[in-house]
Amino acid sequence: MHRIDHVGEHFRVAGPHLVTPSPQRTPVIIQAGWSPRGREFAARHAELIFVGDSDPVAVREGLAGIRRRAEELGRDASQIRAVVGMNLVVAPTAIAVQEKIDSLQAHYASEAQLAAYAGWGGIDFSLYADDEPLVKRATNATQTKETRSDAPVLTAGDVRRQFSRVTAFADDRFLGTPDTVADAIGAFVEESGVDGFLLHPFLSPGSVEDFAGLLVPALRERGLYGGFPQDGTFRSRLRSDRRDRLGDDHPARSGAR
User: Fold this and answer.
1) What is the pTM (predicted TM-score) of this model?
2) What is the mean pLDDT of the chain?
3) Positive or negative: CA dihedral 173, 175, 179, 184
4) Which residue, among 3, 253, 34, has the nearest Cα to 145 in the 3D structure?
5) What is the distance between the alpha carbons of residues 98 and 114, in angstroms, rounded to a whole number?
6) pLDDT for the residue numbered 139
7) Is residue 179 helix, strand or coil?
8) Quick check: 88 and 211 in contact, CB under 8 A?
9) Mean pLDDT by groups of 10 residues along the chain of 257 residues
10) Whether the Cβ atoms of residue 172 and residue 85 lie closer than 8 Å to each other
11) pLDDT for 191-211, tens place per residue?
C-alpha cells in the first residue's frame, strides 16, 4: 500500500479513500465475454458471468468448461454464478403482444442500432454494399467468440435486414403471454444451467414494469422466482455460504495474481 499523491491540472489528492468500506470490502467481480481469453479470465476471477451466448446447449458446455478450469485453478466452481441476456415483450394476450411489438417497431431507428453494432463489432457498415461479405478484422472492439469455420458467409445486407426489426436479437428474446414466456424461461434454464437473466428493456420503465407485474407472478407459480435471500450484501446473495467477502480460494483474497 502506498499513497497516490496525484497532482494534476484539475485536482490534487493524496489518494486514500474517504468512504467507509462496505461489508463486502471487494466489489463483486463480474466478467462479460465469451472468447477463449474471456473464459480463462472468468475461471480465474469471476464471481458472476454475463454469458456471451444464447444457445442453451452452447451455454451449458461453455459454463462447464469455465467451472472445470476454475477447479484446476483451485477455486470452488460451485460459487461461480451465470446470467444471460433477456429481451422481453410480454402482455396478457397474443394480440396485445403483437401490438406492443408493432408500437416498438414504429419508433425504432435501425440506423441507430447499426451504428451501435458497428461500435461493438468494429465494422463500419457504410463501407459495404448489401451483397458484400463482411470481413473479419483484428480490432480493439468486442471480441466475443471465435467464428465457426463452417458458419455461412455473412453479408452486410444480411445484417441490415436483421437489424431492420426491433426484435433483431431473436436468439435471446422472450415474446408472448406471461404463461408462454415463463414456460420458455423454465425450459431455457433447465437446458442451459444459468442462474438467472440480465433484463435488456426495450422501454424504460415499461419493460421492467411488465416483467414485475405480468411475468413474475407466472414465474412464482412455477417456482422460478423467489426463494433467494432478501437481505444481505450482493455477494452474500450470490454465494451458497452467504459470505460477504471473497472466498479464501479467490486469487484476490490471497494477493496472488
Assistant:
1) 0.81
2) 88
3) negative
4) 34
5) 24
6) 61
7) helix
8) yes
9) 82 78 92 92 97 92 97 96 94 96 91 83 84 73 53 82 78 87 96 94 92 97 88 94 94 68
10) yes
11) 999 999 999 888 889 999 999
Q: pLDDT (tens digit, 9 = 90+) per residue, 157-190?
A: 988 888 888 877 655 689 999 999 999 999 999 9
Distance of CA 61 to the CA centre of its chain: 17
CA distance 29 to 70: 14
Cell numbers of 110, please? 435501425
Paired residues of 12 in beta bridges: 7
Strands annotated E in the chain: 6-7, 12-13, 30-32, 48-50, 81-90, 173-176, 196-200
